[in-house]
Amino acid sequence: MGLSLVHSRGCAGIEAPLITVEVHLSGGLPSMHLVGLPETAVRESKDRVRAALINSCFKWPQSRITISLAPAELPKEGGGLDLPIALGILAASKQIPDNAFENCEFIGELSLNGELRPVRGVLPAAIRSRDSNRTLVIPNANAAEAALVKGGKKYCGVSLLEIANWLKGHHQLSICEPLPPGNPPKLPDLGDVIGLPVPKRALEVAAAGGHHLLMAGPPGTGKTLLASRLPGILPPMSERESLEAAALASVSQAGLDHRNWGIRPFRTPHHSCSAVALAGGGSKPRPGEISLARNGVLFLDELPEFGRHTLEILREPIESGCIVISRAARQATFPARFQLVTAMNPCPCGMSGDDSGRCHCSAEQIQRYRNRVSGPLLDRIDIQVEVLRPKTSILSASTDNIETSESVRARVIATRQIQYQRAGRANALLSVSDLDRFCKVEGERLRLLEHAAQQLYLSPRACHRILKVARTIADLEQAGDIRSTHIAEAISFRQLNSVGAAC
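RE: above sequence
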């Protein structure tokens, strides 16, 4: 007869809820029963734990073993509960002290020989464990990931036997240490882009205010080239933003790559990706491309080639900054605050409006192509700019006075500092009430905006976004008030509001 209790962490979206593993040994035929909504991987832990205990020179109790995973209504998945289950059995059978892990949490999958294998989602668990003021014990392979979380006690081990000896006081576990800093990857430089002054300006304004951007134009004009330069001019990530991005990567299917720590995500899904791949989901909800672009850039090239249903998924996350994945058995909420950058051709062949006159698409074909992108989605994109084919060859163009990403980034950082000092957020995230405080226009400036709204058939949402872009342009010039020139430039960035104006 024996009873023990061990703490662990589960996975529910980006959260790591506390799981209590209760182990009870009682009389009866030797058996092992798991209760508490264990999924297949958890039910299979019975065989892994038994083999790990025997091969680690422990005795397998000849009793009826009942293991309760609480809370019962939370589905349990993965192999991370192997270690707490094994420790619970050892404590209940008096092979290790039953009071040694009262303030500890254990996560780890066991191999048949008792070694610890890495698990997914350790970073969110480390955050919650630190906030709960408990010591976290994890596999050695997850040590660098857990060490990204500052504060709290975090130890790592290589085997069940090593952790058991630590609980007995016979051994000292290693403290989780971060990986030595490596050379950050070199991002593409804006100085490589020759010409295109208007799209470059739009890219800088988008980076300075966190605005969504659409580039339309013939193929080969530099739309993808410009989009790839955006991460290089964005401000560096804060500690909080880095943790958010890393936590999402930790629970994703691919897992966390430590080389990307502190680097803004740049996600480029292919236009054939499904709605689930973009939004996230599955029977066990995982973050999709929208969430994995958190605090970074989501670049959708060849925008009309994406499925209509897939694109419409973007509408709510753009407004709310989160996405809720609901399934029959569970619900998961993932953060989804990202900067959307899109690129598209003006027609199916891409040559509509080109001076070469090579486009042979009919008006009906062009309209059908453009209608693949809905008006409500376009209405949510702050900056819409045309990328024209250069009049002269770029091979003979002068490279003098071309700004590098470093110089543009310096202006972007200074502009973001103004915004955070004023409102605590980037201009793209200003609320309607914030617009009355920080983007108020009157007189000639108001009449200019109203005239544009009538001529371009702009919605109130589009007018609000014009004001936000104008505020960013004013901040770039370090101007206190929004001027008519700022509004005029912001309006010029909405000339593609109907997409048909792109050509």
